[in-house]
Amino acid sequence: MPPVKYGDEPSKIHSFKIHSFIPTMTFDSRAKLFLFALLVITPAFYLKTVLDIALVPRFICWSVVLIAGVFLFIKEYPKTKYLKVLDGCFLLYYVISAFSLMWALNTAEAIFETQKIFAAFLTYLLLRFLLFKSEGRLIPFLLLCNIAITIIVLCSVFIQLAEAPTLFRLAYNNFRDIKGLSSQRNLVCSFLYLTLIFNVLAVSYFEKKTWRRAVLALIVVQVFILLLLQTRAVYIAIIISGITFLIGFQVITRYFNYKRILGFAAVLIILVSLVLGRLLLVDDDFNVYVEQFDITKYLTSTSASERINMWEKTTSMIQDKPLSGFGAGNWAIYYPSYGGYADSYAADKDIFYQRPHNDFLWVFSETGLLGFLAYLGIFIFAITLGLRAVYKMTAPDERLKVWILLSGLVGYLVIANFSFPKERIEHQIWLALLLSTLIFYTKQYFDKSPNLPFPKIDNRLLVLLAVAGLCLNLMIGYHRYKGESSMKYVYIESTPKQRKKQLLRKARSYFYNLDHVGFPLPWYAGIIASGESNDVQALKYFEEAYALNPYNFKVVNDLAGLYGRRQDTEQAKKYLMAAVKINPESQATIFNLAVLHYNLKDYKAAAEWARKLSDEYPRKKELLQRLQGK
Prior knowledge:
It is a single chain. The protein is 68% helix and 0% strand. The protein is mostly helical. The chain has two domains: 78-454, no CATH class; 479-628, CATH 1.25.40.10. Helix 6 runs antiparallel to helix 7 (185-205) and helix 15 packs antiparallel against helix 16 (425-441). It is globular. The model is unreliable at 1-21 and 166-172 (pLDDT under 50).
């Protein structure tokens, strides 16, 4: 607390309380505190007590940081408020997602997805406000936070790399489980790409050569790790955004001349020669690793065929409900009903898809045409604004900064077409950071863009609404954390059945009723009850599970099996036919259909189903032998 000066009126001296401590901190100090929590603590926060160590823990941390941010700047918010086109698109996207709760089959997933959008929108507004209010003073600290989290993530990657048994051979298979601080390798790569954008911006921003060289060294390490971890979506993003950047860089700075081009060509030839020499002289799994760099082979890979299959089925979903969509967060529930497992790698491998690996198709299928246009409008407006600024600006340094951000945004769009950044907390924070920083550097053109109609609302009411939304986030986060941490022990076979029952009761709530792969929690309770021959209780649980997710073929198959055990052949046949329609390759469902028809003495149909079983299925031979005598 600053010392009291002579002449200060007693009424202006603040006592040391929470409500009076915040105003005693300067605006920049409060902003730096918020930025550090948002950009360093939140993306590094994880808990091993849940299966997905990052999603729900970071959702909770993010919400806490945003609540603090709302109160930290409560006295500085502008009285005159306005909405620009980008703001309107973001807000409309959130509102449509919220309205989709009315027709979403699973409300818990819809609420979770909608509130992530709410937090992303609020993050964007707060970051833009801070940059405008500070007039750019916070940019250096923001870049330092980006550098800090980059180093933290890289250190976690290096620690995991050091545990790989054949590190120095760069073995392909040993790097597939590198996750950094994320739950998947693809996610750590896409996040490192996002931090790479701001590290490149730091090189153009910092004036001291020492700082610039240090950041350049960090960028080299970062790119090396990205290439090492073999994520094709990020490869393509780096190539496209890199080419975009180089074109603009040359136009803006006139940096390249024939001498520099020859120098770069010589370095490239040496590098290519070294790689080719390594391939020719040594025959090991390094060859498999290098093949990942060949993006042209992607279309023939298993990964590509799976994505193309998902995109085709998602397009069918969009055609069925083009206006309303299926509800936020509900793609994973409806997808199997569109033949998602037909001719699929996951058909009989207990793989359950949770996303289409294309954010734009994902948004369209869940929120309909208007939601898709609103989401797309965010990027269209940002890119249009950036291009207009680059065209009209005269200062090369400012033009270059805008172009770096635009090139990075292009790369984000590439990743969004092959992966799922909109699902992840740290990705949405950095997207908000990217948009708000781009708008700050193009402020004069942003301010000239038309204002959308916005009612006069008192700041206190807006703060109240923001805090109410974030408190809802905390409630959602608490219940989902409680659910996931309980389910982690349900999956362990050695956990006693009685304990599993208690954990399932504890896990289920209004905000959490499906596990991380889309299985309803009552299904697990039904499996336990069925194993104890408590068919009445098992049927109740299976019917509850079916109501929560009627297109999970295992849920439908087990419900049919229980009806069959209760001699209700009509219901058993109904649900088995539904299950085989969802997943035509499910061996358990096909076997159950064969047995059902055998018991009904329809031996011809039983034989037809039995022949569809894989030759490796353990009871196929026995069933066919029984049918031979019939």
